[in-house]
Design brief:
- The structure holds two protein chains of two kinds.
- Chain A is an alpha+beta fold.
- Chain A has one domain (about 45-265).
- Helices cover about 40% and strands about 20% of the residues of chain A.
- In chain A, the strands form two sheets. Chain A has a six-stranded antiparallel beta sheet, sandwiched between helices. Chain A has a two-stranded parallel sheet with strand order 7-8.
- In chain A, helix 1 (about 10-50) packs across helix 2 and helix 3 packs across helix 4 (about 120-130).
- By secondary structure, chain B is mainly alpha-helical.
- Chain B has one domain.
- In chain B, strands 1-2 form a two-stranded antiparallel sheet.
- In chain B, helix 4 (about 50-75) runs antiparallel to helix 8 (about 140-170) and helix 5 packs across helix 6.
- The chains are: A alpha+beta, B mainly alpha.
- At the A-B interface, helix 1 of A face helix 5 of B.
């Protein structure tokens, strides 16, 4: 070959062509698969929400069951004021739909650092989050004639994010059900939060609205009362993360529930 | 290397000639990437808690390995020497991203289980090692065989370790599409008043290292040629 493949010019040319080719190929792959991936993510969200109210769903019937059980989707702000509400069919592409509020993204972007900085000080936390324009989605469901509220929660485990859905009964203080998931918690330890033996303990527990701590996930093996559940032995930090995310998130929703009950009177 | 270059210059050689078959079988035992070359150990520790993860991981590595080896082998006369490692990295990384995206689109449940580990295939030393040591100096045909051989050599260790860890750690076996099958009767477990308890140590990463160590031990007892002198 006439071209010296070790010359600087050739090296640059090769790199440029390589980057363009690879970039095009990856962009093409990502774009052509995006719709499918988004649909999968939306299905997963519906399955999780339905799971919290005890309706088993799979990817093929998720949207159908979601439309059947979830009667209203509400977005509220940090002070518990309703921002929007809709009962129409879910459109995952509609950014205004409360279904599309990405609580995980909000947590990553602003809440996580604020929680860390506030270090348990609630006042400081609400001040830090006040100007973030956060929105919190709430899913009002009806299952067997009973009104249930499903609330998404997001927090941090030991290695990475954890999240879940908590369903409250219509007295807004009794937990109807919960499910959790995680990204990278230790298998056999923290990762157990997604298992049913853990989530089933939440059913029927109460939120202690009189106290500063609404609900506790205790260190594994400790005695529990109606406001607490037993954490995962060997998964202390993950259990604490579940505790933290439930308390922090549910407080916002309780403000909404209070104003709602006042409005009804 | 000299024999390999000779193979490359030989005129028409069948893909399944003796030499090429050796490329396929050697990495399974005599030059196994994990137990002999001690490459790719990190992922062997991370995703061998359950068999189904190990299966999907092995398939993903097989795809990336074949793709990487063949592409680099096709480009071997065009790649500038000074940036060859970067070129290899870009090729591997792109293939891994494609695998990850495809899994997310078509196998969302499995993709969720494997989470970050698919991305970590990029850092798997076996792949970069084979690209650098073999694909850069050989034709696509032998490179293809070499890729299959090494990926399978990686895969069988992964599968063996994950079977041991899952059976003793969870009392179960899982295959993609079937979920986890617990084969021990529940009343055997101590929590139910039985005599048996799963070994939690098996689930933790150190036990993967020990299991790999035991495989190495067995392998070197059988094949004494592998034992280093010192």
């Amino acid at each position: 070959m006439a071209i010296d493949k070790n010359s600087t010019g050739y090296t640059f040319l090769f790199s440029i062509i390589m980057v363009v080719v690879v970039g095009t190929a990856l962009a093409f792959t990502a774009l052509s698969l995006k719709d499918r991936q988004d649909a999968n993510a939306a299905d997963k969200k519906m399955i999780d929400i339905l799971g919290a109210i005890g309706v088993p769903a799979n990817r093929s019937n998720a949207s159908e069951l979601f439309a059947e059980y979830v009667v209203e989707r509400v977005a509220i702000d940090l002070n518990g004021q309703q921002v929007s509400a809709t009962s129409e069919a879910v459109d995952p592409k509609d950014k205004e739909d409360p279904f599309s509020i990405d609580v995980k993204k909000d947590y990553r972007a602003s809440v996580k650092s604020a929680v860390k900085a506030a270090d348990g000080d609630e006042q400081a936390l609400s001040v830090a989050l006040a100007d973030k324009n956060l929105k919190f989605p709430l899913f009002r469901c009806v299952n067997e004639g009973q009104t249930l509220y499903v609330i998404p929660v997001v927090g941090s485990g030991l290695w990475g994010p954890i999240w879940g859905y908590v369903a409250l009964e219509d007295d807004m203080t009794t937990i109807y059900g919960a499910n959790f998931d995680h990204k990278t918690e230790t298998p056999g330890l923290g990762a157990e939060i997604k298992e049913s033996f853990f989530t089933v303990k939440f059913k029927g527990k109460q939120l202690n609205t009189e106290s500063a701590t609404l609900f506790s996930v205790l260190k594994g093996g400790a005695p529990t009362d109606e406001y607490s559940v037993d954490g995962i032995t060997g998964g202390t930090i993950t259990s604490k993360g579940v505790d933290e995310m439930i308390n922090r998130t549910l407080k916002v929703y309780l403000r909404y529930f209070e104003s709602e009950t006042r409005a009804q009177r | 290397m000299s024999t390999e270059t000779a193979a490359a210059t030989a005129k028409k050689e069948s893909l399944f000639s003796k030499k090429n078959r050796k490329l396929l079988s050697d990495p399974l035992d005599d030059s196994n990437p994990i137990t002999v070359q001690v490459l790719g150990i990190c992922s062997a520790l991370a995703i061998t808690v359950q068999l189904q993860q190990a299966v999907i991981m092995s398939l993903s590595v097989l795809f990336v390995m074949i793709g990487g080896n063949v592409i680099i082998s096709l480009l071997r006369n065009m790649i500038p020497d000074r940036i060859r490692i970067i070129v290899q990295l870009v090729v591997v990384a792109s293939l891994v991203i494609i695998v990850d995206q495809v899994l997310k689109a078509f196998q969302p449940d499995i993709s969720e289980k494997l989470s970050v580990f698919v991305g970590l295939i990029i850092t798997n030393c076996i792949i970069m090692g084979r690209l650098e040591a073999f694909a850069l100096g050989n034709k696509p045909g032998p490179s293809f065989m070499d890729a299959i051989g090494n990926a399978m050599g990686y895969a069988w260790i992964l599968l063996a370790v994950s079977v041991v860890r899952e059976v003793f750690g969870s009392g179960a076996i899982s295959l993609p599409g079937m979920g986890q099958v617990k084969f021990l009767p529940t009343e055997w477990f101590m929590s139910e008043g039985g005599f048996y308890e799963n070994n939690n140590l098996m689930i933790l990463p150190p036990m993967a290292l020990i299991t790999v160590g035991i495989i190495i031990w067995i392998q070197r007892t059988r094949n004494t040629a592998l034992i280093e002198e010192n």
